[in-house]
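USER: I would love a firmer grasp of how sequence relates to backbone shape in proteins. This is the protein in question:
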Amino acid sequence: MFYVAAVDTFYVLEMVVEYTHESDALNRKYLRGETVGHVVEVIDGFLLAIVLLIFAYGIYELYISRMDDAENHESAEHLLQIKNLDDLKSRLGKVVLMILIVKFFEISMTMEYEGVKELTIFAASIGLIALSFFMSELSARKSGQLKTRQSDHGKRIASLKHPHQN
């Protein structure tokens, strides 16, 4: 999937070059819409590749062998350590949520709103997306997945804690 998304990225770059050479405003507007749509598809492809990668690492850690580098390296431990099947499902669920949001964005770009009903449904779906993000963050806080860690630059990254927690 990384290869497929990389090839798609190459073709999107070709579209961007074509966009810069387009002089007709109507054609440029059409090309801009097509380019943005393809960029969203490329992002979707990379997210799907990440889902497959997390799934592969998780299954390997759960059923074959632990990865010593993931257990010993501070920046990798938050990304690669899968302790149980629920942990794997949680990590995959977050990326799948991102894929669904990107797909929603892709579809919403081509939607035509004919009245108040369509706009209300669209606004309600955006509200549900925000609610799903909130629930995902709340779940991560309760399970202890949000921890303080050092970045690659050696600086501290603050964990996401409730303001009243110490």
User: Anything to note?
Assistant: The radius of gyration is 20 Å.
